[in-house]
Write a structure and sequence with these properties.
Strand content: 5-15%
Helix content: 40-55%
Largest sheet: 6 strands, parallel
Bound molecules: farnesyl diphosphate
Distance between the termini: 28 Å
CATH architecture: 3-Layer(aba) Sandwich
Structural class: alpha/beta
Strand order of the largest sheet: 3-4-2-1-5-6
Radius of gyration: 19 Å
Number of strands: 6
Number of domains: 1
CATH topology: Undecaprenyl pyrophosphate synthetase
Number of helices: 9
Order of helices and strands: HEHHEHEHEHHEEHH
C-alpha cells in the first residue's frame, strides 16, 4: 500500500511546522555553492505545500529565515532575499489556483523593502483563500516574539487596560504573531539536526517532534507522508496517563 493511503485523514495534524535545514550541505554534496541548495529548497517548499494541502492540513508554517540568519555572509543573505522575491512573484498564481492563503510571522518590517513588498502583495492577493494557510517565518525568533508580547502586556498593565493577575495563556497567546493560528501538533526538522533554533518556543510546548536525516532539498511528498504516519503512531498525553486518555 502506498504511504499516502495509509494516512488516517481523521487524525491529521491541523498544523505542521517545519525547520527546513540542510540546503548548504546538500549543495556541498553536489559540489555547488550554498545558494544552489536554497534554490533547490524552493522545489521542496512547493512539494510540501502541495501535499499538505491535498491531505487537508489546515496550517503549514515554514522557518524560512531566522533573526540569526543575518549573520551569514552578505552574498548568501542577499541571494535568499532575492529568491524570496522571485519565488513569491512566481508562486502567487499557484497559491491562488490551490486556494492557499499566505501569511507571515516575524519582524517583517526589517526585511529588505523588495522582500517586504513581495510578501505583503502575496498576503493581500491570497487573503480570501480557504483551503490551507501557509505561514512563512521570516526574520523570526521565538524569544523576540515572547519579549514583544511581554512588553505589550506591560504597557497595557501600565495604562490600566488589564491587571497583571489577569494574564493567562489565552491573553498571552493573543499578543503573539500566531494569534488565531492553532499550535502545531507536529514539528519536522530535516538534515539530522535536533535543535529548536529559536523557533515557535511558546507554540511548540506540546508538539510532537520528528527529525529526519534528509536534507531539505531532498524532502519529497513521501517524506511528509512518512512524518505524518510516524506522528499518527504516537499517543499524545498532554501530561496525563495512558489510562486517562484511552
Ligand atoms: C537552511 O539550510 C535553510 C534556510 C536558512 C533557508 C530556507 C529557504 C528556502 C528553502 C528558500 C526559500 C523559501 C521559500 C519559503 C520560498 P542551511 O542553509 O542552514 O543548510 P546547512 O545547515 O546545510 O548549512
Amino acid at each position: 500500500m502506498d504511504l499516502k493511503s495509509q494516512i488516517n485523514t481523521e487524525r491529521l495534524p491541523r498544523h505542521i511546522a517545519i525547520i527546513m535545514d540542510g540546503n548548504g550541505r546538500w549543495a556541498k554534496q553536489h559540489g555547488k555553492h550554498r545558494v544552489f541548495g536554497h534554490k533547490n529548497g524552493v522545489q521542496a517548499v512547493r512539494e510540501c505545500t502541495e501535499s499538505a494541502a491535498e491531505l487537508g492540513v489546515e496550517y503549514l508554517t515554514l522557518y524560512a529565515f531566522s533573526t540569526e540568519n543575518w549573520n551569514r555572509p552578505a552574498l548568501e543573505v542577499n541571494a535568499l532575499m532575492a529568491l524570496l522575491v522571485d519565488t513569491l512573484g512566481k508562486e502567487v498564481n499557484t497559491l491562488m489556483k490551490n486556494d492557499i492563503r499566505l501569511q507571515a510571522i516575524g519582524d517583517l518590517e526589517k526585511l529588505p523593502k523588495r522582500t517586504y513588498k513581495a510578501l505583503l502583495d502575496g498576503i493581500e492577493k491570497t487573503k480570501d483563500n480557504k483551503r490551507m494557510t501557509l505561514v512563512l517565518a521570516l526574520n523570526y525568533s521565538g524569544k523576540w516574539e515572547i519579549l514583544k508580547a511581554a512588553k505589550k502586556l506591560a504597557v497595557k498593565a501600565k495604562e490600566g487596560i488589564l491587571v497583571p493577575d489577569q494574564i493567562d495563556e489565552t491573553i498571552f497567546s493573543n499578543e503573539l504573531s500566531t494569534v488565531g493560528i492553532p499550535d502545531p501538533e507536529l514539528l519536522i526538522r530535516t538534515s539530522g539536526e535536533t535543535r529548536l533554533s529559536n523557533f515557535l518556543l511558546w507554540q511548540l510546548a506540546y508538539s510532537e517532534f520528528y527529525f529526519t536525516e534528509e536534507f531539505w532539498p531532498d524532502f519529497k511528498k513521501e517524506s511528509l507522508y512518512t512524518a505524518i504516519l510516524d506522528y499518527q503512531k504516537r499517543e499524545r498525553r498532554f501530561g496525563k496517563t495512558s489510562e486517562q486518555i484511552s
